[in-house]
Write a structure and sequence with these properties.
The chain is mainly alpha-helical. It has three helices and two strands, in the order H-H-E-E-H. Strands 1-2 form a two-stranded antiparallel sheet. Strand 1 and strand 2 form a beta hairpin.
């Protein structure tokens, strides 16, 4: 089993860092966005953006593995 690349780790850590370590930036009720307090909007937006980041990590890994020179049939 191979270790993941640095790019894949960075892509995968973006949602974690955005949700956990930015609380002081988004911990407020105002403004209201789409009828939601800003903190709910922030969390829901990252729930929707997380698959995009995981897709980026997947693409990094598949590009690294396929570019390694493995023979194709």
């Amino acid at each position: 089993m191979r270790k993941p690349s640095i790019g894949a780790i960075l892509f995968a850590s973006i949602p974690f860092l955005a949700i956990c370590f930015s609380v002081s930036l988004w911990d407020r009720i105002d403004p209201m966005i789409l009828g939601l307090p800003f903190n709910f909007f922030w969390l829901i937006s990252w729930l929707l953006l997380t698959p995009l980041c995981m897709w980026g990590a997947y693409r990094c890994e598949t590009a690294r593995i396929s570019g390694r020179g493995s023979p194709r049939p």
